[in-house]
Structure prediction request, 1010 residues.
Amino acid sequence: MAETTTGTANYDPDDYFAQAVTDFTGYTIPARSTLFNKLSSSSNDGFANLKLFRMDIQGMDMRSVTAADYSAIGGWQVNSGEDYDLAFYDAGGDGAHSSVDMKKARIVMIGVTVDGNGRATLWSGGEITGGGAFEGSYSHVQWDSGPMAQYISGSKLVLDHILASPYSTQGFEYSGLSVIDANAVDMLSFENTGQSFDRVVQFFKDHSDTVNQWMTSLGEDQAAWKGKAASLFWHLLDELKTNYDGYVSQLGGSDYTATNSTLGGYVPKSKLSDALAAAQQALKQAITDLQTAWTDWASDGQHDPHYHVKKILDGISSWVINNNINHVLAEDWASGEASGTTYSTDADFKQNVPDYGDLTQVTTWQKVADAAVKSWSDHADSKLKQPAIDALSNVKNAWADVEDAFAQEVKNKNNETLAEVLQKEETEIAEDQANENNENLNNSLNNLNDNLNDLGNNFNDLNTNLNDNLNNLGDNLNNLNDGLNDNLNNLGDGLNNLGTNLNTNLNDSLNNIGDGLNSSLSNLNDDLGNSLNNVGSGLDDLNNSDLANAALNTLGPSLLNNGNNSTKDGSTTLNSPTGGTTQLNGDGTLTTTFPDGSTQTIDPSTGLVTTTNPDGTTSVSQLNPGSTITNPDGSTTTLNSDGTLTTKFPDGTSQTLDPTTGQVSTLNPDGTTSLSQLNPTAGSFTTPDGSTAQLNSDGSLTTHFPDGSTETLNPDTGQVSVTDPSGHVTTTHLNPGDTFTNPDGSTTTLNNDGTLTTKFPDGSVQTLNPDTGALTTTDPSGHTTTTDIDGSGLPSSSIDTSGLNGNNIDTSGIDTSGLNNGSSLDTSGLNTTGLNSGGLGGGSLNTSGGGLDSGLDSGYDDYDSTPYTGGALRSDALDTSTLAAASTGEQAASGGTPLNPMGMGGMGGAGGGQGGNTERTRAVLTDPAGGSTRRGRTNRASSVDEDEDVVYTRPTTSSAPYPVGGPGGNGAGQNGRSTESGDRARDAWLTEDEDVWGTDEGGAPAVIGR
Prediction:
């Protein structure tokens, strides 16, 4: 019956053969140092605790022995009942002695195999023997040869067993030692596990095709689905396909070619399965090498420990013949009838064997036994140790490669959650709505500008009419004065004829009449002057009114300048006298293209100069403040201490450029100086290898490489298009986390957050965020800088409110040419202080006054404000939040539009009117987080918390006259009134009669969620 072992490894620390057998098979062979503990002589014997044999020493009849007949009395199996006899002379010590005795050591092997006659036999070459417990036939001592058989023969048998079908050591047992199930080694487990990974790869391949068929049947993602369940379902399928394809790719690809096969002849179909097959083959080879080593060890029978006992005894016997027997002297004697022989030893006699001692002592034979065990162990090491070390090392190295293969984590290529997709699409919807509202606002403001121009024209006409009326009034007064004078003169002449007496009295009367008329005319003149003063003061008040100023502030300088950007006054390129062109990049660097095709990029902040020759080779130099470089066209460029760059051309022209402002001062050969403006190219920057890159308005990145090739990468779609110098175009797809090799040898990685990281051969690294325009550059020394390559990223349609401070408002868009004092009105004698040059004719409204005269308001109150509750030109109901919003850039709902009596009507808040076209949707996903927008793209969505409902409402309606809200605040329309059919969550949903969630009128069919 086989004994069940604990399965604990117990080999000696330096016994690599035992370690290899235990590790490779699970057969825990005993420690070599303990093999013969139960094969030793009894402690009760005179020669106790001798390993592998027992013995005694007996006296023999004294006689002379020659070397020729020594073999008759000593050696291997000379006498029955003994395995070895060793005869020797004992003189009590080495040297010459007068007397000497003859003795014999009788030796019996322990644990040796015996033949049919009961005689001990030594193992033949490669012999396998069993073992176990047994009892000595003479001494009845209990011995056990099992551990010796387990180590010597069991190790070979278990190695043979694992390489034969079914390639497992489970259930193996030999000489009382078995392999427990927990330690059993199954070679086919490598193959079975590898096939499991192959089935996983096949699963992902098959299901990727299935998902692709579903997506094909649905078609491409449609704009009408955006923000709906249909779009989320499409993105779910897209995410599954992307990840399934990624799994297959990471596990070796669809058409993986294996480099190994298994014991059963199976050919792996994936990277991990191939690695397991390699590990299996490495283990098989290691076991085979151990088998070969064992066969070599046992080839001459020296794997038998008793062989080494006999070998040492044979050596001692030879030593005895030469040093002991041959030095005994015999001398015959006779005395009368008596005779005999006396024995003595000469000076060269020895009985102390080197390394062992006196042949009569117990300690000598203990050393002999130990030497036999050591001889056996040394021989085993000479044959087994190094092959075992090599086998262990080879398996360890092979399995380390397997560990490396399994250490590569299989990752998702698309980690975007449905909540993030929904957030992204909602952000895009909000952006589209904001763009539409912005366009409507711009249109409304343009209309307001036109109306204000019309108002200015009306004021001009009013001024002209007033001037004409006043001129006519002056002419009539002059005519009246002339008529009165003529009549008075005629009357005077007539009265003079009445006589001197009457003349005096009449003159007095006429003088009184004249005084009265003068007083009346003076009063009339004063009244007309006061009226004209009131008219002038009214116009002056209108000129100085806070209301007009607030309205123009609301417009902002960008609108009054017809929307022109100030940077348009300059150019994005600067031409040189030699035919070259210079571009100011968005990152502050300057790139010059020379007529010979070479380019040169200067970074004023670092002084680095990168020159790319026409053949594509690139060189980098350092330009320090005050130093000068020579350019490819023969010109020279100096980096000045203030950061400006001065370039001198062969024709005598000199250009000084300030990279921080773009201002260019050109000194011509004739001594004249001209100024120009070099505007930066938004989104452009340079790379460490001399390439130039442009961040496009759609978020894609276009790079021009020194060899003439061009690459465009769209981080939203992952599409990469490369046009080589011959014009050939290659298009590939880049998933998040993937890396692409560029034509210049650099590599670009599309990160999961949408940023692009490019690593250059010189060790530089650039990371670009297409959403924000932030460019982070790390040079080879580890120094990092971050620049904004295109500014704040505001859309071009945004309103410029930089001048909304209440002063210096540009009104050049308003025609005020008629509002001046250059008319032909004769105002001599009239007070015209109200019509001063500070009025509307100055080209800029005077905001120093206190506002319109309240007395003028009644003059406009009879304009019907219906249906525009904003009122007419001057409404006392003006909401001060409008003026506050105009100065802060915020939007606020107002009661209407001031300065607009010509039918503009009141413009409600931007939040009023039609509130959007979002379809009511069930709360199927969580509340999304917000995100910022840039150049028509959206940032990658933020995460959301689960189980938080989101409800989308039906559109609101308003009385505001704008289809998607007016230019006011985020409130309702006119005076905040609105009628809502949404903005609240439904407590319950009706079945079948209600709208189907995930769809919209005119959109995709209701494919899920009914």
